Amino acid sequence: MSAKRKTVAIIAITVMTLLPGCSGAPAAVEAIQAAKLLIEALSAADTVVRLYERYVSESVERTRRALYEDLVLEQMERNRRAADNGQQILRVRIDLPAIALDWENSWRRVEEQTEALEECLDTIQFRSQVYWTTLGEVANAIKDDALRAQEQIKNLQAKRKWDQAYANAEYQVERARAICDRGADFHKVLLGSALRSEISQQTTTLNLIATEAEALLKTLETLTEQGRLLVIGNP
User: How many domains does the chain have?
Assistant: First the structure.
């Protein structure tokens, strides 16, 4: 289990163990409802985390294969065929435009899950504030001073654990955003390489056209000169 999923699980367990015992008071009913809503938000976050990890892994593996593993295998196969047939070995070209497009499409899912993860964290923060406020009201409503103090201490200890778990979850979401941004930057670099490759190919084509045009021009000049001499020589 990843650090992000562990954090979500820890938070969920913490909430489950913090349900108030004085269920007869209206504030206790509100606390139970607040805990239920908070647990639902944590479950939703866990689903998003799983999708995030899956999409990151799939995107990286697909592109790694396209850039390295598939390329090496194809080159080895070409080398084998060339050796068997006594032909010149042809170098495998990387189709950068296709890889850049594929990365863009696959990484878009990561960006969507990153935004969903941030939204889940905002929801968890809001619902946790409602939960802790309501739980505090439950403890404060206890008439017995000693019992009230005990409950307040328990709430304080539990809140500290929650704050630590939430801070860790917040850090993990920030890391997820950083990974998402690095992936977006990688796409721009990949796209830039693809565009430079395309421009390089077009430059080669232009040079070829220029060479052919120069040869054609010389042919035309020769033809024109011969025609001029023919006309002058035969008035």
Answer: 1
